[in-house]
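DM from R.C. (forwarded with permission)

"hey, sorry to bug you on a friday — could you get me a structure for this? deadline for the figure draft is monday and I only need the backbone to look sensible"
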Amino acid sequence: MNAILDAAQARRAAPSAAAAPQTLHLLQKQDYARWDAFVRACPSATFFHLSGWQPVIEQSFGIKTWFYYVEQDGQIQGVLPLAEIKSRLFGHSLGAMPFCVYGGVAATDDAARAMLDGAAHALAQKLGVGHLEYRGMQRAHPGDASWHTKELYVTFRKEITGDDETNMNAIPRKQRAMVRKGIKLGLKGVVEDNVDNMFTAYAHSVLRLGTPVFPKKYFALLQKTFGDECEVRSIYTADDKLVGSVLSFYWRDEVVPYYGGGMDLARSVAGNDFMYWNLMQAAASRGCRLFDFGRSKLGTGAYDFKKNWGFEATPLPYEYKLYASTALPDNNPLNPKYQLFIKVWKKLPLPVANFMGPFIVRNLG
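My reply, with the result:
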């Protein structure tokens, strides 16, 4: 990380005549390693800036992507992954990034940042999208009236230590009791080399919520693409009944539980609380010092669950630039116009929901 920052500072300090001009490029497969080396070193980059998201999203959902980068003197100075969602039901958008909770420009140079913004603007105009979306943890364009924000999502991030007792005591008493219940009942965590049981638990959960399921292929591609940085951890009873499962990303010193779900059994055995505790234990022993519980929508059960674990909500100021649209997007299950769909979806047989879900969810992002 220091090498990239030092190089960027050196370029800024050098006479402008000595520097080659910055150039804009689209990522090619042969440049994946170089792109990822920059992402891993850039302080503002996230797991969701990695090049692996390009083949995952394109192959899982058939969605077109544009992964832009700016280069100068052979060194990458900034990246911006983008993908297009085109749906009659949910609208036409260009975003950084669909299916990811964080996104936007990651750069070590202001000029590179501006060039990438310009590329996104030009592409949005060319495609004729309704809006352009950046999913940053901070506003990238404060004071710019052409960019809008809305209060919908928050993220929950908290430091953890290498000591189990300290981490356990940091959990509020009521949820700590639920964790201890799972321990007393003999629940156990197992790292899986496939996504079969994870998909089973996840599909049961989203059906109860009335939301479409992602294709199983998507989870398998995540595991294959990101390797050791993508872990599938399943929870079982002492007699090996599946309780729940969570797919998590490891990034720097963070663990990010990203997709998870529980069987009907989970409620009676405190399965969800035990599952996240078991993951926290494993992540802490692996050297992680930050637990990113992920984003949630305000007013949802997931929001309350994370608050009850003692995590503080931090607003996510996603930014939107309008083009063909006249209003900010509202593809939100809390939107009243989707309530009938959700009620009907909950009543579908699981095999039917699992078949139909992927055709719908690819349009949500």
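R.C.: lifesaver. The first strand starts at residue 23 and ends at 26.
me: no worries. The chain has two domains: 2-150+318-329, 155-316+346-361.
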